[in-house]
Design goal:
The protein is built from ten helices and seven strands. With 277 residues, it is an alpha/beta fold. It has one domain (3-276): Vaccinia Virus protein VP39 (Rossmann fold), CATH 3.40.50. The protein is globular, with a radius of gyration of 18 Å. The relative contact order is 0.15. Bound molecules: S-adenosylmethionine.
Length: 277
């Protein structure tokens, strides 16, 4: 595992623990002791302060908004095939394969795919086995590799409404890596006749409440990633739109936070974007 991968990997354990705390379907299967340890380390290191300051979201509120808005965007797109890049230990693949009967491919680095497969082998209830076997697939691929466009296009080829998802992934990459990744996804979607890309991106605009939220989140992410943190945020929504345009997407719009009432009021520097080819 490279230094970069080793720094990002713990975040998947942390988020899996959060999906369990939120009571999301199938999340218990993927929660790990490592995730619980990271969760309580962050809480005791100072995150508890954010519980007393409603204008600064807790990490759980921030992640709940991100996860549920992505879920809502997927519902709206009504995909017949989803490929999730950097899927980690997310419960989304099982949910869509079992409850929504959609073919789902989860992509991650080899060590994380092994951990995910082990969790499925150990914890998947027998009544879900047939659906998971029929519709959920796990694959290893470095999404920053040059083979991505080709590799992705081959896996999307037989779908009519393909959607590529990346949650909590793009922000860890340097600007040139983000550009390459987005261009690769756009090229793959174009090769199969079009589709959508859904991801979360943070930007620095938005006033004092958002600036406070950003500082809190940055500290939290630094702690979970042992000091590495995520990379620079985009400057504005215009900056994000330019990023998608450069990559070859024909349109890009943020998801309205009111789409999920339960998380609509959480101040967050992140927006969920739906970019189309
Ligand atoms: C912050 S975690 C998010 C996990 C999941 N999407 C979620 O929200 O619960 C980021 C994930 O991206 C994966 N990842 C990091 N770099 C990657 C790369 N170059 N190729 C594929 N996956 C990568 C990590 O292994 C990790 O599982």
């Amino acid at each position: 595992m490279s230094e970069r991968d080793a720094a990002i990997a713990p975040t998947a354990h942390y988020t899996a623990h959060v999906w369990k705390r939120l009571g999301l379907p199938y999340a218990t299967m993927f929660a790990t002791a490592e995730g619980a340890r990271l969760f309580w380390t962050l809480r005791l290191a100072g995150e508890w302060l954010t519980l007393l300051t409603p204008k600064v979201p807790t990490m759980v509120e921030y992640l709940a908004q991100r996860h549920l808005l992505i879920e809502a965007a997927l519902d709206d797109l009504s995909p017949d095939r989803i490929v999730e890049l950097g899927a980690g230990l997310s419960r989304r693949g099982v949910t869509w394969a079992v409850d929504k009967k959609v073919r789902y491919l989860e992509v991650d680095l080899p060590h994380m795919v092994r951990a995910k497969q082990a969790a499925i082998d150990t914890h998947l209830p027998p009544r879900l086995r047939a659906d998971v076997r029929a519709r959920l697939e796990l694959a290893s691929c470095d999404v920053l590799s040059e083979e991505l466009p080709h590799w992705l296009a081959a896996r999307l080829a037989d779908s009519r409404r393909p959607v590529v998802v990346a949650e909590g992934l793009v922000g860890y990459f340097a600007p040139q890596e983000r550009d390459r990744l987005a261009a690769g996804i756009a090229a793959a979607l174009r090769a199969v006749g079009g589709g959508a890309f859904v991801c979360d991106l943070r930007s620095t605009e938005g006033g004092k409440a958002i600036a406070r939220a950003r500082r809190g989140l940055e500290l939290g992410i630094k702690l979970i990633t042992r000091g590495r943190g995520s990379r620079a945020d985009f400057l504005s929504e215009d900056d994000v739109r330019a990023f998608f345009r450069r990559a070859g997407f024909s349109s890009a719009e943020p998801v309205d936070r009111r789409r999920v009432g339960r998380v609509a009021r959480t101040p967050s520097p992140a927006r969920i974007w739906v970019a189309r080819v």
